[in-house]
C-alpha cells in the first residue's frame, strides 16, 4: 500500500481513493493540483497498484490497511474522503464499519454494484478481460481509445493516460479487485452520527443508481450533474469546475 500526503500542511484532510485498475496519479490527475491548493491530501494506492510486487487480495483486507493508517497517522479521523468509482466502495466501508471516523464521505458517481459469488464470477469473466487488454495490438488499442474518447469526451492525452494505467497492473490484481468489490456489500439505511454522506450523481448513468444511493444511506446529500460516470475527472472543464465547487461546499469550504 502507498499513502502519499501533499497539499496544505494545516488544511482540512481529504483522502483520495482511486477506482478500478487505477492509481491516484492517473485517476485524479486533472484535479490533484487544484485540490492540493485547498486541502491536505492523503492519496492512496492499493496493494497491486502501488508499484510494488504485492497483489491486491480483497476489499476488506485493503480497507483494514486504510483504517490502520488513519488510526496511526490521523488519530482515527479524517475531515473527508472521496472515492472515484470503486474507490467509493472503500468510502462506504469506512463509514459502515465505524473503525475510523469521516466527517464527510464523498461518493464520486459510483455504481455500488454487489452480487453473489456466481454472479460476481460471471461478471468478472466478462469485464476483467476488457480491463486487462490495453496492451494488445496497435489496432485494438486505437479502437479502444476512440471508444473512450467518444463516451467520456476524453482528449487524446487523457485516453492515453488511462489506457497506459490499465495496461501497467497485473491481471491478477485487477481480477481480485473487481471480483471482491462485487462481494463486499453495503448495508441499507446506513447512518453514522457526525458523518455526512454526499453523492456526485452522474445522471447519464441512469436513475437506478440514484435509487441505490438513497437505499444504502439515510438522507444523503445528492448533487446531480448531466454527465457520464466520473466524467468530471476526464478533463472537461464544464464538468470539472462545478464538481470541484460542490466538493468545497461538501467540505464546508468557502467558494468563490
Explain how this protein is built:
The chain has 256 residues and is of the alpha/beta class. The chain is built from ten helices and seven strands. It has helices at residues 24-27, 32-36, 59-74, 87-97, 117-131, 138-152, 156-168, 171-183, 207-216, 237-250, and strands at 2-7, 13-17, 40-45, 77-84, 101-108, 196-202, 221-225. Strands 1-3-2-4-5-6-7 form a seven-stranded mixed β-sheet, with helices on both faces. It starts with a strand and ends in a 6-residue tail after the last helix.
Topology overview:
Elements: E1 2-7, E2 13-17, H1 24-27, H2 32-36, E3 40-45, H3 59-74, E4 77-84, H4 87-97, E5 101-108, H5 117-131, H6 138-152, H7 156-168, H8 171-183, E6 196-202, H9 207-216, E7 221-225, H10 237-250
Parallel strand pairs: 2-3, 2-4, 4-5, 5-6, 6-7
Antiparallel strand pairs: 1-3
Helix pairs in contact: 3-4, 5-8, 6-7
What descriptors fit this protein?
256 residues; alpha/beta; 7 strands; globular
Structural class: alpha/beta
- Number of DSSP strands? 7
How many whole angstroms does the radius of gyration measure? 17 Å
Return residue spans where pLDDT drops below 50 for at least 5 consecutive residues: none
Oligomer: single chain
- Percent of residues in helices comes to 40-55%
Biggest pleated-sheet summary: 7 strands, mixed
Tell me, rounded to a whole number, the average pLDDT: 92
Shape: globular
Output the number of helix runs. Answer: 10
List the strand order in the largest sheet.
1-3-2-4-5-6-7
- Per DSSP, what share of the residues sits in E-state strands of 2 or more residues? 15-25%
How would you spell out the order of helices and strands?
EEHHEHEHEHHHHEHEH
Distance between the termini: 36 Å
Amino acid at each position: 500500500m502507498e499513502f502519499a500526503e501533499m497539499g496544505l500542511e494545516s488544511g482540512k484532510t481529504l483522502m483520495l481513493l482511486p477506482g478500478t485498475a487505477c492509481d491516484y496519479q492517473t485517476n485524479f490527475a486533472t484535479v490533484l493540483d487544484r485540490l492540493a491548493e485547498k486541502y491536505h491530501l492523503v492519496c492512496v494506492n492499493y496493494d497491486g497498484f502501488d508499484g510494488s510486487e504485492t497483489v491486491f487480495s480483497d476489499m476488506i483486507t485493503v480497507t483494514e490497511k486504510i483504517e490502520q493508517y488513519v488510526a496511526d497517522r490521523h488519530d482515527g479521523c479524517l475531515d473527508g474522503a472521496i472515492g472515484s468509482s470503486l474507490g467509493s466502495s472503500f468510502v462506504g466501508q469506512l463509514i459502515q464499519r465505524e473503525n475510523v471516523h469521516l466527517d464527510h464521505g464523498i461518493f464520486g458517481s459510483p455504481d455500488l454494484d454487489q452480487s453473489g459469488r456466481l454472479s460476481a464470477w460471471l461478471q468478472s469473466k466478462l469485464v476483467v478481460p476488457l480491463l486487462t487488454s490495453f496492451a494488445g495490438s496497435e489496432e485494438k488499442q486505437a479502437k479502444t481509445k476512440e471508444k473512450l474518447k467518444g463516451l467520456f469526451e476524453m482528449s487524446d492525452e487523457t485516453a492515453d493516460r488511462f489506457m497506459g494505467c490499465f495496461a501497467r497492473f497485473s491481471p491478477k490484481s485487477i481480477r481480485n479487485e473487481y471480483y471482491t468489490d462485487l462481494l463486499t456489500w453495503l448495508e441499507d439505511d446506513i447512518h453514522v452520527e457526525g458523518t455526512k454522506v454526499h453523492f456526485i450523481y452522474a445522471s447519464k448513468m441512469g436513475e437506478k443508481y440514484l435509487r441505490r444511493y438513497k437505499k444504502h444511506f439515510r438522507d444523503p446529500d445528492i448533487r446531480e450533474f448531466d454527465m457520464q460516470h466520473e466524467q468530471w475527472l476526464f478533463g472537461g472543464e464544464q464538468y470539472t469546475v462545478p464538481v470541484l465547487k460542490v466538493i468545497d461546499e461538501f467540505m464546508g469550504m468557502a467558494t468563490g
